[in-house]
């Protein structure tokens, strides 16, 4: 499995040093969460900040997590898609929320599928129709399909992981069960074909994330690198 460390971007030195720390850490990708910053910063200032970041050998993932899916900004579809278009021109991957897609504007009309992590989140429950969600993502052929849910019990965690294992696709898949009950999905998701784990460095972005250090120790028995199955 690979590890992804989320960081909330802003224009402070604290962010710059957290970014440096992430670049020099043992994570594989760095997720740059942009939703908090978009409440205060002009989007073009934010794009300027992103354009000069040097990720070294890490891959960057730009994410605008909107309030519809547990994030911190409210955007119309037009605003959201315009921002995604700009992010696609940067060097990195872009998270796109499945709920923003419709027949008239499929993924390819505002994002590059080969650069996209297509995502679905439910912070309250585990939807009954997980297969329908995976199949809806499949129709857009993104690089990665990601489904994150909140389990109420172990059966929900099992249902999520099994749905991931059974979903046949050319995309990479990520299945996350949030909260304490979902730890197995973050630590051993690869047993069900989920290829990445979000781990905290300094900031958590969702319930149940393990620290990068704890994840590495639990996976390898020592503080070694993740298995480097990069994408
Ligand atoms: O989609 C995800 C997964 C996540 O919600 C998690 O549960 O680790 C954390 C978010 O930062 C990220 O965008």
UniProtKB/TrEMBL annotation:
InterPro entries: Aldolase_TIM, DHquinase_I, Type-I_3-dehydroquinase. GO terms for molecular function: 3-dehydroquinate dehydratase activity. Keywords: Lyase, Schiff base. It catalyses: 3-dehydroquinate = 3-dehydroshikimate + H2O. Its EC number is 4.2.1.10. One of its GO terms (biological process) is 3,4-dihydroxybenzoate biosynthetic process. SUPFAM superfamilies: Aldolase (SSF51569). This is 3-dehydroquinate dehydratase. It comes from Faecalibaculum rodentium.
